[in-house]
Amino acid sequence: MTGGGLGLADAHQENQLLVGIIEAISASPGVGPLAANTARLIVEATATDVCFVHVLDDTGTSLTLAGATPPFGEQVGKVRLRLGEGVTGWVASHRLPAIIAENKEADPRYRYFPELRGREFTSMASVPMASAPGGLVGVLNVHNRARREFTERDVRLLTSIGSLVAGALHQARLHRQLAARERAHELFVEHVIAVQEAERRRMAADIHDGISQRLLSLAFHLDAAAGALTGRPAAEPQ
């Protein structure tokens, strides 16, 4: 397809896509399933060829491919790029959309990733996924083999989708971090209990050994006292 927008006939279809994204968020709050479902819904609704969802890692310094439509599913989790690297990294670092209708190699922001086979696709649109509470969460890309003009309406729609997904991913990240903190707390408590139990056993052993030594000493002294009374020598303590 050449020219035109994302293939959405009217606002009703746009709303259907957004509702589908919301349903995907509700059904799959995890990062991986949500990214995969989002990519699939976008390609189906917009008649683009490929969609990639890149998610910002917890350090905020790099992006990881978290969701992709066929035939790129095997690359999920493997493709990583730094902020500022390639068009996707540029969008992440500048928080601005990027549109390339053709001749991507001439764009100074473009970088070729063999595993994503970018040279097979002529046009691309890349938008930041950001929400008010969580800030930047990732970048959403769509690619088309034939030349395609992505309009302002297309960019607004993709940005709206990105905002919805960003909010869900932000909540998923907070949930994951909270679960990790809770697990760390559980491990800490288990460690403290183990240390306390070891110390209790050590103290019990010390007390037992001390009492044994005192009993032996007392027995020796009693034996010595008895020997003094009877005139026999006391036995050596064991």
Topology, please?
Blueprint lengths: L10 H17 L3 H16 L3 E7 L5 E7 L11 E3 L3 H9 L3 E3 L22 E9 L3 E10 L7 H79 L8
Antiparallel strand pairs: 1-2, 1-6, 2-3, 4-5, 5-6
Uncertain spans, ≥5 residues at pLDDT below 50? none
Q: Termini distance?
A: 99 Å
Report the major sheet. Answer: 6 strands, antiparallel
Q: What percent strand?
A: 15-25%
The shape is rod-shaped
What is the average of the pLDDT values? 81
How much helicity do the residues have? 40-55%
Q: What's the Cα radius of gyration?
A: 34 Å
Tally of extended strands?
6
Strand-and-helix sequence, N→C?
Answer: HHEEEHEEEH
Structural write-up:
- There is one protein chain.
- With 238 residues, this protein is α+β, with helices and mostly antiparallel strands.
- The protein has helices at residues 11-27, 31-46, 86-94, 152-230, and strands at residues 50-56, 62-68, 80-82, 98-100, 123-131, 135-144.
- Strands 3-2-1-6-5-4 form a 6-stranded antiparallel β-sheet.
- It is rod-shaped and about 120 Å long.
